[in-house]
Amino acid sequence: MLRTLSAALLAATLAAPALAAPEVNKVIDNERVTVWDVRLAPGENAPPTSQEFDTVTVFLEGGTIRTRHADGTVTAATRSFGDAVFTPKGSGAVDMSDHAHEVVIALKGGIAGPNPGPAGIPNAFPRAGSEKIFENDRVVVSRFSWTPGVPVPMHHHDKDTVMVFRYDGPIRSTGLDGKSEILDFRKDQIRFSKAGRTHGELLAGERQSAVMTELK
Q1: Which of 83, 94, 168, 203 matches a 20 to 30 Å C-alpha distance to 16?
Q2: The model's pTM
Q3: Do 89 and 105 meet the contact criterion of CB atoms below 8 Å apart?
Q4: What domain range is 49 assigned to?
Q5: Is residue 146 pLDDT above 60, yes or no?
Q6: CA dist 142 to 49, 127, 131, Å?
Q7: pLDDT average, residue stretch 36-42
Q8: Cβ count near 33 (within 10 Å)
Q9: CB atoms within 10 A of CB 122
Q10: 165-197 burial string, b = 16+ CB within 10 Å, else e?
Q11: Does residue 119 form part of some domain?
Q12: Is the Cβ–Cβ distance between 36 and 103 less than 8 Å?
């Protein structure tokens, strides 16, 4: 079974008893993923990554992140908004930092079936202006910023997606039927979106950026 949050925190505490417990909240738990919102203050370690499932760590706020691996080695890297790190199951890696905000995604489900969109409608990603951060046989992670006054053309979301937003910034969504709605996305919001939506997008506020972790 996937180790519980309390068990992960206990393991981290036993590994480094002098360190305070970080702020960790489970925000999504379904058949495909379990997602934690992890905020590290000075003197805090993140819980170890899952022993049973591969994980993806997406950074909302970064800096210099030191990672202690299962063999005791420590590596360091500079992370910024939208960076993503894939950790295979069983690695038990622990992130250490003076300050960081991470979204940790445990990949529970298997490979999903195809979800084709309407004829002639492209998939949501890649799209003009998007940046692919990471891809393997489990996920594709992309970073994207909406531009005021520039619509995102009609597209189809063919994959289940974990979305992480950087700012308060609503998006106007318009479907194939021409009907529109305002999606009120907020700073640091984490959402799970099922595959199958077809729509166009237009920034309805001043700014918005997001990291999209698409599940294969």
Answers
A1: 83
A2: 0.86
A3: no
A4: 5-107
A5: yes
A6: 22, 10, 5
A7: 91
A8: 21
A9: 13
A10: bbbebbbbbbeeeeeeeeeebeeebbbbeebeb
A11: no
A12: yes
